[in-house]
Each structure stands twice: as structure tokens, then as C-alpha cells.
Amino acid sequence: MKVDAERFLADLHKLRGFGAAGVGKGVVRPAYSKADIAARDWLAERMQQAGLTPHFDPVGNLFGLTEGRSLLLGSHSDSQPEGGWLDGALGVIAALEVARAAQEAGGPPISVVSFEDEEGRFGVTTGSAVWAGSTPLEVADGLTDRDGTGFAEARAVMADRAGDFIDPARFTGYVEMHIEQGPVLDGSGEKVGVVTDIVGIRDMRITFTGQQNHAGTTPMHLRRDAFQAVAAFNAAINARFCNVVTPATVWTIGHVSLHPNASSIVPGRATFSMQWRDGDSDRLARMERIIRDTAEEIAQAQGMDLSYGPMLGLEPVAMDATLRAALEAGAEAVAPGNWRKMPSGALHDATNVARLMPVAMLFTPSIGGISHAFEEDTDEADLVAGLEVLAEAAARLG
Fold first, then answer.
1. Helix %, strand %, coil % for the chain, to 5?
2. Can you tell me the distance from the alpha carbon of 251 to that of 200, in angstroms, rounded to the nearest whole number?
């Protein structure tokens, strides 16, 4: 089984063309957007040309299936609202090239997947979560994006392509190749990272509701300013986490929506995202208690009503020993002495798929540790090295 590096890179650049935007190699390809659907249609054609049978499931996950039981490789091809060309796309195109090389060599059997909405337009890794059963379809259909569009409405645009959900029993395991999205490999100069485990994540929306009022005539001491509640929450939560978290723990307020969002009006409502990640489930639960207690105290102190959106999240996941050993052997064959074992601080579809089958992950370096930005990039020699490691592992597992 011999991969074709030029063919792999050409496909990767072609995929970047769907939703290309911004500076450098930026991409805007959110789930169910026109660019996302066009990219999936093109991927389906490439899968068919590679000897695979393309199949869309009810939520837009795209599988390229080989005959019989097979190893499943892949990732996702949707992007952040302002994303880079490699996040997810790398794993899909690497999987396609390995599957194509396997078809040309007469084996081993390799199938490919591009999951939908990994980037969380509607939830947390929504497409793989529905397929894996961690989020029932009827629950996912009730989710909305930040503009109020429902998941059911969004996925309906692909209804003419959709078939049934694929039976996971036809796959022996799942391996996902991805950029690191952090600075470790780039800083060390190492070519490859073999993932040991993926952190857990919690994500929810919090809303403070105060009183909308005139910004010029309402005295400061009489205001029920919802944004001031958010600001107080942010300051308090950082201090209260100090004795609970580790240096690897992270938390983020990434989206704030004010109503009515006007310069001359005291905001009466503020809704914000609260996300936190850690490798320990008990610590994630302790952080949730602190978040809720802090929000309630601030709401009471500032005369706010308080409400929460649904709690979304995934548990930490350890990688399968057999699949991981194959990646480690492949890394040593391709980059002897120049690779490392490492955890993943980012969330991936492999977390959901682990409910169904053994999983493992492989990282390539991210220049400057930058991801979820137009500047995201990786040296093409490192992309090819990762592809070769994936192919080595697939051959060993086959």
C-alpha cells in the first residue's frame, strides 16, 4: 500500500477552495452552509472515484464505504465561522488517500467518514454525537444555533441525499488524524504526536435578565445592567477556580449576546457561552457547581433573573491500546525518535465514536500553535509525514 503525496495535497487544496476566505488559507465552511454541502458533494464524488460507496446519513455525516468489515478513518470537513484549511479537513483527506491506496493495493479494507457539525454550530460534535447515540436525534433536532436556526431545519437541506444511519458494527475501529491545534509539536520540532487521551468538555449558555432602560437618565445605582452581571461573573469565576483546577484545565466565555445591543440602552438581557475542559470527570462536575453557585450569587446581588440552556458535554476518553500501538509503530518508522505521546486538549469526533468501537488519534504540528483562525497552517512535509504514519498504522492493523 503506497500513498501518493501529491494526490493527497492536491485534494487537500481543492477542499480548501470550498469556502476559501480571508487571509492566508482561511476557510468559512460552517455546517450545512452552501460551501459545506458543496464540499460534501465533491467528497462523495472523490470517494466513488476511489472505489468506495458514498453514503449520507440523516444528519449529513458522509461515509465512503468499502465492502465488508473495515477500519474507519476520517474526521470532519465543516469549519469554524472563521477557520483554517486543515482543522478536520486534514483527517478526511488523509483517510481518503489511505483508503484509495488500499483499494489500489487490494487491501486492507478501509472506509472513510466526514462527520457533520463537529465545530458545534448547534451543539458539541453534533453529527458524531447523534450517530454514536450520545445525543438522540430528537434532542439534537431541538438545538438551535446562535442566530436561532434549528438543527432540524438546517439538516433538512440535505434530506434529498440522506439514507439510513450506518451500522457501526461494520467497523473494527476508528482512527482520526488531526492537526494538534496547539504549540507543543511546533515548539519541540517533533513531526508526530500519538494521542494518549482526549479531555472532557462541558458547554452551556447562561442568561442574566435585568431591566432594559435609558442609558442617559438611569442612575448607576438604580441600574439592573445585564452586562455588568456578566463582567462580575467572569471576574469571580477566575478567582473561585484557583483551588480546583490544574495547569491543564481551561475555561472560556466565547460568545456574548446583549439585548437590545444598542449604545444608548442599558442592556436588559445578556446570554453568554460558558465552556470548560479537563481530563477528570469529577473536576468537571466540581467546576459546574462553582459556575452555578457563582451565577446565582451574582444574580441575587444585582437583581437579575437567571436561566440556563441545556448542558452539553462529553466525558474524557482514553485511546485504545492496540490502535495506539499501531500509530506508535508507524510514527517510529516514519520519524524515528522524533515523535511523542501526548494528550489532546481539543475535543474531537473520536470522543463520541469511542462509545461504539476502539478509537485512536494522530497529531501533526500546528505552526505557532494557531488554529480556529485564518492563519492556521502546517508545513506540507509534516502533513505528508502524518499521512505516511496513518498509512503505516492502517497497514499494520489490516
1. 40, 25, 40
2. 12
